[in-house]
């Protein structure tokens, strides 16, 4: 390899070497010489310092502004939920937060109140593998609920979770406790950061049998490599994903 590199560079050919560290972002990799040997140093994942503080400040400012801006939308949506089907306006469900702590995640209710009791009858509609359930034609979803989901309006109450500190704007997908009990040691690393309203799992999600593996891989990559710049990029890419969903 050294001889080939030397020959190529002597002829003015630019050489680039690929690393096998595909799950580590470039900003964490630093080349440091040890004697005459170039070694690749991987920066550790830090949970303290300015970056987490900047992320929290960003969450508070953006979530607060977004909540104020969407009050009229949420008021109309809440009224539509209440007037078209019996039951509470908000759907509350326990999810796994940072360090494995449980919290109540909020959403506008999009299903009929007997949805849990009817889970068995719609099991064959599931398009996801493992413990997740994904069925676009789920009959338990109310007509208003379908509209709210298509426009992602049902997720607006999660801004309250962000302000409270249970969630972040960007992070791993909020997991159910029933999922967490089946996690491997590697997957437990997901709880090193707060779950997010959006994340790499949202902009790079897949359908079908590989859906579980896709979100797990993306979540773990985010946990190990997140940065404020990465969060901004994910938020920017979330907008076209949501808009494209509206047109399907």
Sum up the structure in keywords.
248 residues; alpha+beta; 2 domains; two-stranded antiparallel ribbon; 6 strands; 13% strand; elongated
What percentage of residues falls in helices of 4 or more residues? Answer: 40-55%
SS-derived structural category: alpha+beta
N-to-C terminal Cα separation, in Å? 50 Å
* Whole-number total of structural domains: 2
Q: How many H/I helical runs?
A: 9
- Rg measurement, Å: 22 Å
User: What pattern of helices and strands is seen along the backbone?
Assistant: HEEHHEEHHEHEHHH
- Strand content is 5-15%
Unreliable spans: none
Largest sheet data: 2 strands, antiparallel
**Average predicted confidence as pLDDT:** 83
Major beta sheet, strand line-up: 1-2
Please give the number of β-strands. 6
Envelope shape: elongated
Describe the structure.
By secondary structure, the protein is of the alpha+beta class. The protein has 2 domains: 2-42, no CATH class; 50-246, no CATH class. The chain is 41% helix and 13% strand. The chain is built from 9 helices and 6 strands; from the N terminus they run αββααββααβαβααα. The protein has helices at 2-10, 50-69, 71-84, 143-151, 158-164, 177-180, 200-203, 211-225, 228-246; strands at 29-34, 37-42, 90-96, 102-108, 168-170, 196-198. The longest helix has 20 residues, at 50-69. The radius of gyration is 22 Å and the shape is elongated. The model has no long low-confidence stretch (mean pLDDT 83).
């Amino acid at each position: 390899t050294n001889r080939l590199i030397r020959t190529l560079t002597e002829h003015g050919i630019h050489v680039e070497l690929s690393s096998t560290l595909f799950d580590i972002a470039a900003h964490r990799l630093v080349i440091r010489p040890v004697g005459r040997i170039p070694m690749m140093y991987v920066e550790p994942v830090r949970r303290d310092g300015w970056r987490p503080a900047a992320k929290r400040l960003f969450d508070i400012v953006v979530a607060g502004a977004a909540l104020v801006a969407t009050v009229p939308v949420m008021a109309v949506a809440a009224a539509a939920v209440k007037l078209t089907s019996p039951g509470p306006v908000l759907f509350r469900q326990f999810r796994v937060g940072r360090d494995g702590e449980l919290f109540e995640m909020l959403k506008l209710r999009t299903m009929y109140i007997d949805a849990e009791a009817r889970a068995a009858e719609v099991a064959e509609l599931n398009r996801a593998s493992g413990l997740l359930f994904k069925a676009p034609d789920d009959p338990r979803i109310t007509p208003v609920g379908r509209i709210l989901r298509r426009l992602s309006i049902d997720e607006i109450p999660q801004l309250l979770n962000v302000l409270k500190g249970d969630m972040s704007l960007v992070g791993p997908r909020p997991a159910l406790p029933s999922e967490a009990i089946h996690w491997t040691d590697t997957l437990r690393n997901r709880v090193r950061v707060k779950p997010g309203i959006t994340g790499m799992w949202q902009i790079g999600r897949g359908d079908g049998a590989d859906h579980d593996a896709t979100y797990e891989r993306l979540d773990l990559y985010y946990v190990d490599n997140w940065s404020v710049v990465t969060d901004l990029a994910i938020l920017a890419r979330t907008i076209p994903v949501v808009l494209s969903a509206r047109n399907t």
